[in-house]
Amino acid sequence: MQLRRARPICAMVPIPLCLLLSVTSLAVVVAVEAHEATGRDDEYTWPQWKVPLVRNRRTVALSSPGFTAKPQGELNGTCGIECQRRLPDPSLADLEEFLSYETVYENGTRTLTSVSVQGLNEVNTWPAGNSSSSSKSRRRREVYGTDTRFSIADKQFSTKYPFSTSVKISTGCSGVLLSPKHVLTAAHCIHDGQDYVSGAQKLRVGVLKEKSRRGKGGKGKRGRGKGKRRKGEDKEEKEKQEKDGENERKGRKGKDRKNRSRRSAEVEKPSFRWTRVKQTQVPKGWFKGGASDGVAADYDYAVLELKKAQKVKHMDLGVIPSVKKLPAGRIHFSGFDDDRPGNLVYRFCSVSEESKDLLYQYCDAKPGSSGSGVYIRLKEPGKKKWKRKIIGVFSGHQWVDVNGNGAQQDYNVAVRITPLKYAQICYWVHGDSSECRDA
């Protein structure tokens, strides 16, 4: 069945009504989170975890990548819940193999680092995945029925926390800020399992700009400095404003009014501040053709280190044993969906099924949102304050081998943060495993 792409609401209504809808959308977001903050508060607290230590064992140089892969719109052949149940539990050696990682640097060089895992037996018992999955086929769920996504087009909202933690990856995906200099995203946005994608050679990350500085001391298109204007510019601008006001009072619908509307749209159009990536780290569990066959989707995550720190609030990682036991089992994430260019798109939905490493849900999404940080909000231990944390990475639409017999069903899937993944990602960010013992 051919799906119709949902048009952004603001493309179909006048600007005042569009602003009203933007405010209404934000009110819905606030209402949803307020609903989750009520009720039995004491039960909804971030659990405390002792996580294992992931330490570097040896680093060797590899040949430079070919950067020949093409970005993937969706993944195929993922081993689903029932399929994974048939796989033997990984040994310590297997886990160390999966968590070993490649690092690709800005100059194109590459290294492979093997790791050791310590203290695995000290970790709180990680529950076995539960599933209410049936063998019934499911319809494609990128967007199904009514499109429940919200475009956060107004910079007043999109550049404020938690939306401000969402970033755009130059290969066409999304990501989330873990620290001022680190971004979490999906591995398949950078590597197809065999080689790095062509755009990963000069990878960049875009953060939404708050407001244009032009006319407020910043530099314009021609590099004019603070307070400097061309002769007569102030007079021209004043005359132009007076003319626009006169046209509006007269109710004119001519060329000047069209131009004014076009200018308004251009001012509201989101813009990005782009930063180069210093290095990229991808777990070996993602690479196909090795010991990770059958579990590659579990390791569909990567961390990008930026060359310049961003002056934007980031979001911490969190570990939760079961999302379905939370209020409504609901998750949230924002990304830059392909069908709404430039706009940040927010959505929330309930998790339908979960395994040890994956979250299966039907959040409406389109390509481009892959790599978004999936988060929830719980109370901090011993405090009344509620805090959002990233509990997963949105991988995207995937065709899943549910029963291990090759039959494919489709879901929208997120990779969940487990204690081991927390330990690895935390080490990548801090470079010191002693800072990563508690989650």
Automatic annotation (TrEMBL):
GO annotations of cellular component type: extracellular region
GO term, biological process aspect, one: proteolysis
Record-linked SUPFAM superfamilies: Trypsin-like serine proteases
Peptidase S1 domain: residues covered: 159-203
Biased composition regions of type Basic residues, renumbered to the chain: 211-230, 250-262
Keyword terms, alphabetized: Glycoprotein, Secreted, Serine protease homolog, Signal
Main location: secreted
Keyword Glycoprotein set for record: yes
InterPro entries the UniProt entry points to: Glutamyl_endopeptidase (IPR050966), Peptidase_S1_PA (IPR009003), Peptidase_S1_PA_chymotrypsin (IPR043504), Trypsin_dom (IPR001254), TRYPSIN_HIS (IPR018114)
Location of this chain's protein in the cell: Secreted
Compositionally biased residues, Basic and acidic residues: 231-249
UniProt entry tagged with the keyword Secreted: yes
Leader sequence residues: 1-34
GO molecular function list: serine-type endopeptidase activity
Annotated segments matching region Disordered: 207-272
UniProt similarity note: Belongs to the peptidase S1 family.
PANTHER family (alphabetical): INACTIVE SERINE PROTEASE 35, SERINE PROTEASE
Name of the protein: Inactive serine protease 35
Organism: Salmo trutta
